Amino acid sequence: MNQESFKLVVVSAGTSDPSSTRMLADRTAERALSARRGNAVTVRVIDLRELSADISTALTSPLVTPKLQQAIAVLGEADGIIAAAPVYQAGPSGLFTSFFQVLDNDLLIAKPVVLAATAGTARHALVADQAMRPMFAYLRTMTAPTSLFAAPEDWSDPALATRIDRASLELVLLMESGFARAIKDQSWPSYQHEYGSAASAETAIDLDTDLMRLAAGGSAEA
Predict the structure, then answer these.
(1) Which of 30, 85, 89, 98 is 20 to 30 Å from 2 at the Cα level?
(2) pTM here?
């Protein structure tokens, strides 16, 4: 069996140092490396607290800073993603959701994702499934069946380690399946890509028409 190379990207929205959110994401990445079954896996980390100003700029203007563009490029090349967020007021942090809201809608199609969340109380245990999973469904990712959640009391509970092992194995199996690559190679045109997306065939759009000139603020030819 030939060895393959995979790129695993951790997206952490933890804001403290040290961060329990980053710790949960790192532990999941470590277990994924242990479950890789001989294939080469490289891990890159996108720490959103270092991009907070860049994300805010992208939300309020057309400007995408070079720093944010680099993070987006890393995410676009990922074969698998671990997306981890702290929970504030019963939802993932605004920094986390804002980052994914500024992404191209086509960037993450079919990419395997493990969802992870941390909070100060177990009352938020369903946030990953009830709030995060729908957003990633909209982005058309392939989310792993097992999501992760950790409140303070969970770190000493063996059940958390069991869930991390299960989620990381699911992620590795999804990455190794080649599903995302097959979608891009064989089924990409069947998706309704957004105009202006990085992956859409913009050259197929005829800009020199009356309708497109009117849409751009010009006038139709007589």
Answers:
(1) 30
(2) 0.85
* Interatomic CA distance for residues 5 and 98, integer angstroms: 30
Using alpha carbons only, give the angle 135, 138, 141 rounded to the nearest 5 degrees: 90
Q: Which among 40, 49, 48, 57 is positioned nearest to 6, based on CA atoms?
A: 40
Handedness of CA 10, 5, 143, 202 (dihedral sign): positive
Quick one: how far is CA 85 from the chain centroid?
11
The per-residue pLDDT for range 88-146, each reduced to its tens digit, is 988 999 999 999 999 988 899 999 999 999 999 999 999 999 999 999 999 999 999 99
pLDDT digits (tens, 9 = 90+) for 170-194: 999 999 999 898 888 887 777 766 6
Residue appearing with tokens 């869930």: 163
Per the CB < 8 A criterion, the answer to whether 49 and 95 are in contact is: yes
φ, ψ (nearest 5 deg) of residue 135: -65, -40
CB atoms within 10 A of CB 96: 26
Choose among 121, 124, 131: nearest CA to 96: 131
CB 108 within 8 A of CB 28: no
